[in-house]
Input
Amino acid sequence: MSRSPVRFTFVRHGESVANVSGRWQGQGDAPLSELGRAQAAAVAARLRAAVRFDHVVSSDLSRARDTALALGLPVDVDPALREIDVGAWEGKSQLEVASLFPDEVLHLRSGAEHVKVGGGESWAEVHARIDRAVRALRERLDGAREVGVFSHGGVLSSLFTGLFDVRGRHPRPLGHLVNTAVSVATFHADHVELERYNDGSHHASTARFSPERFGRRSAVVAAMALGTSLHVEPSLVAGVTEIFTPEEHEDEARFLHRELGVPLRVARDPLARVLEQSPPGQRVLVVASPEAIRDAAEQTLRPGARSIVKMRLPSRGSVTHLVRMPNATLLGDYSVGGVEDR
Output
């Protein structure tokens, strides 16, 4: 049976009280923090203005469910969308886990996917669970065109690594999802079209992308997609130390140069080469065509042979972040902000 395309908007929950305290949370029911409630309100306002959902479904854990309820729409709950079960790690700090479970930590840091975290679930089990959950959702909602899914960072990251066929790759080549990050993908019969990934531009606490997320030894390239009009969102270009542009985009780049007051250089190298040459601890802005940004994102991520994802050209005025760490490169996000073409 053929299925009609379904456009999924995946949203991670807002900040929880466990996020604030730095304690492990899996299937424990830590509520939203005060900031998390503000983030939920912000993402709800963004989504109400941009999309008309046929159906909204959420994890049954309160931090995800309450983020979804901020939309003001009926919300179905599905326990299959819960975060990974971290077993005995639940509620413990990073230091406590490192002290009590050193062997588990060592194996998991090396990328082991069959180790049960704290005796709870393994990542291999989470992969299978979220894949089943999305398949079941598509079957149950056959005919729906716009579906909102509110869940958790671990399971949503698991879903996207599976779509790109990069599971088992260590370090993971996809950036960690920020609180209330919006990721949009249309599921067709034989492929998935990715529109945006890890977009937190709707709230100040999640909009700014800085090298500090990955350590001072990392370099970040913020690639801005050109369009008919170049709108600069201050949060997306905050902390930029230099602007690069090919000659054909120099006029647009000079506008940004005047707005931001940072040095401008004409770079004939492709985006991937600029990333290789960027100094650690710096965040540089590259003005580029949507096609160049999509190509650089795919080259950075290196999807596996069984990937079913086709990356849509980034929206005009959006920013995509490429990150070079000491031992790996990753796609931090894709098509953040800019004009949402719905």
Remarks:
- The chain has a mean pLDDT of 91.
- The two ends are 27 Å apart (CA to CA).
- The chain has two domains: 6-199, 208-295+305-336.
- Residues 6-199 form a domain with the Rossmann fold fold (CATH 3.40.50.1240).
